[in-house]
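Progress report, Aim 2. The chain analyzed during this reporting quarter is listed below.
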Amino acid sequence: MLTSNCSFLGDLQEPFRWIADVTVMEAFESGVLDFPDFYFTGDNYRYRFEPEAKQRFLGFLRERFNPAVGYKGRTLKWDTVIEQKTVELGRYLVDRTGRLDFLEPSPKLTGMNDRAFRGRILSLSQYKARKLGSARSTLCHLKRNVRAHIPS
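Predicted structure tokens for the chain:
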């Protein structure tokens, strides 16, 4: 049962993964994070945050979950929208509603509509994505979204 619960939680996070993905990119682009903020632990082959960098990043991530977004005629923060969507999913799963919509609200991303950036995503190999720490499902999701939104 634990495995199915973990899988369910993983599936539930997917519609909102973009918030964390964009935040990580913005953190490096803005200088909130830099490569010297990480250290390699040889015992378990993982990189770790320096404690101060972790605090900077968490504050940066909190900011990204708190911008106002219009949803169902109200202005909510993204963390509240995620709560609402979780409730909607629960209602759908117990047959209290016949409709489930994860398309609204859609994110308003700025600076991400660059054709060169989209080309880089499309040309990214699974091997290179894995070296960058991206899961196969994330790469597939990114490529699918880029293909669906290429301007003519």
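The radius of gyration is 18 Å. The chain is about 55% helix and 10% strand. These observations will guide the mutagenesis work planned for the next reporting period.
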